[in-house]
Amino acid sequence: xxxxxxxxxxxxxxxxxxxxxxxxxxxxxxxxxxxxxxxxxxxxxxxxxxxxxxxxxxxxxxxxxxxxxxxxxxxxxxxxxxxxxxxxxxxxxxxxxxxxxxxxxxxxxxx
Length: 111
Hints:
- It is a single chain.
- The protein is 56% helix and 9% strand.
- It is mainly alpha-helical and 111 residues long.
- It has 5 helices and 4 strands; from the N terminus they run E-H-H-E-H-H-E-E-H.
- The strands form 2 sheets. Strands 1-2 form a two-stranded parallel sheet. The protein has a two-stranded parallel ribbon with strand order 3-4.
């Protein structure tokens, strides 16, 4: 099964919006455990960052987005997260590498 998770579900979790947060919190980890595939609308990440930054500050907004990126990478079976900020993904289940490291990696794979 594949679902699209709307931004309001993410905000329920991020902002602990009662009474919706409990059901919304249940949807996300099930996708992460591959019970189903969840996709996000393109605008969700930038809007989520904007709202969390206004609500709780830039540090939490950045941390939330990094966690979301790591989860998306894991669930979709990505081999790497390509980023200039590898330190932001030190706890990620998917290894983070720089663009230069990625290009070196694929150059070594080419036959």
